Amino acid sequence: MKKVRRALDIVLENIIKEHENIPSGQQDRQMDFIDTLISLMNQPMNPHDEHAYILDRTKIKAITVDMISGAYDTSAATIEWTFSELLRHPQVVKQVQAELEGVVGMNRMVEETDLENLTYLDMVVKESLRLHPIGPLLVPHESMEDIELNGYYVPKKSRIIINFWAIGRDPYVWSNNVEEFYPERFINSNIDLKGCDFQLIPFGSGRRGCPGIHLGLTTIKYVLAQLLHCFHWDLPSGMLPNDLDMTEKFGLSMRRAKHLYAVPTYRLLN
Ligand code: HEM
Asked: Does the CB atom of residue 208 touch ligand 1 within 6 A?
């Protein structure tokens, strides 16, 4: 563990140094996340309170580790699960591609600004997160005071674990076709992912809910939209959609037990 920590510290130190010593001629480049943190370094976050939180080098490294560890695996695994469901449901792929053709056309690549107009893709991602939440038990929480909830007494300092995987597959919440990948269930529904609709909380809820929800959703939709817009996708070696193994591997994040393989064919006009 100590070795890993030292190695990680060297990587992070290099990232910070690279940002501190931008070569002349590149000074006008757009500021990124690390530039912003460095610009706030060693000054109180609240200028009217000298005891306020101060961002130092170590804290910048800690925040960066949080960002990297929270972001990569979760987004990559969600893309892989969504793609698996799409390969099992060619009809849904056709509909996403029809939406992309309507919004983007076939002569240019998808851009980030297109995402807000891709409403069917939004439903596809919600449905994928319902069935395949990356954090099936979210992150353990602790009650700050004694509380009674729906007739249950929860003492202060209880460890609370939310089984969102089970909520996502509960027929009383989602009706009988709960095991089916069916994005259309979100048509005319106001359910969103921000954490107030408790039947769909793959990013958690409340003050300790996921701070990366917007970056995560943008990344997932952008990657999926580009992959589906640019390419047709087939399963390898004549495999049929129903043959695709959907076994889960339970861990800190819930990934596919086996990697997904798919064969692309280019489909844009140029
Ligand atoms: C598909 C993408 C993602 C999913 C499904 C996801 C899911 C979650 C969940 C379930 C939690 C625990 C929330 C709770 O228990 O209430 C969480 C926490 C967290 N996530 Fe994400 N996340 C994603 C992307 C990201 C990204 C892109 C970042 C960073 C840029 C990030 C950073 C974090 C951090 C730092 C926490 C801990 C928050 C705290 O303890 O206060 N996540 N995430």
From this structure: yes
Rounded CA-CA distance 267/110 in Å is 13
pLDDT digits (tens, 9 = 90+) for 192-233: 999 999 999 999 999 999 999 999 999 999 999 999 999 999
pTM of the model: 0.91
Instruction: Name the architecture of domain 70-266.
Output: Orthogonal Bundle (1.10)
Is the separation of the CB atoms in 260 and 83 below 8 Å?
Answer: yes
pLDDT tens sequence across 6-44: 999 999 999 999 999 887 777 778 889 999 999 999 888
- Facing residues of 231 across strands? 266
**Ligand 1 proximity of 71 Cβ (cutoff 6 Å):** yes
* Exposure b/e, 225-257, CB count within 10 A at least 16 = b: bebbbebebebeeeeeeeebeeeeeeeebbbbe
How is the chain split into domains, by residue range?
A: 1-55, 70-266
CA of 249 to the centre of ligand 1 (A): 19
ipTM of predicted complex = 0.98
Please state whether 105 falls in left (phi above 0), alpha (psi between -120 and 50) or beta.
left
Q: Give the residue, by CA position, lying nearest to ligand 1 atom 41.
A: 208
Q: How far apart are CA 65 and CA 69, in angstroms?
A: 6
Judge whether 230 is annotated as a binding position: no
Give the Cα separation of 234 and 244 in Å (integer). 12
How far away, in angstroms, is 133 Cα from ligand 1 center?
11
- Tokens 């929800």 found at: 213
